[in-house]
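Attaching the record inline, Q. Sequence:
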Amino acid sequence: MNKAQIMAKRIELILLDRGISPRKVKSKIAEICDISIQAVYQWFNGKTQQIEHEHIVKIGNYLSLTIEQVTGEEAMPLTSDSRRSVNQIVDTLDENQMSSLLVLLNEFYVKKKS
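Structure, as predicted:
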């Protein structure tokens, strides 16, 4: 996967999390960026190497996210549905499992920062 495909998938997941129908995600991206749906399909199929900065800004504005949140350079706030899902999972963990999860998350965080 190239950079545009990874970012397109991230944008798709954000839109799905925000309640956009899976069938309408690509057309919604085209609408937000004021580009053709064919251009959006090129993001997803690897024919575009990098999404233009102007489009990232438009998506960020639409979603009320920073550019860094859209690109994945900065964590996004969880939606209430996502937060509930995480809480449901965490509630099932015992103290040892929770400790192991925290160690693992810290390792991922350290790797991402370096």
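The CA atoms of residues 49 and 112 lie 22 Å apart. Helices lie at 3-17, 25-33, 37-45, 53-63, 67-71, 80-91, 95-113.

More tomorrow.
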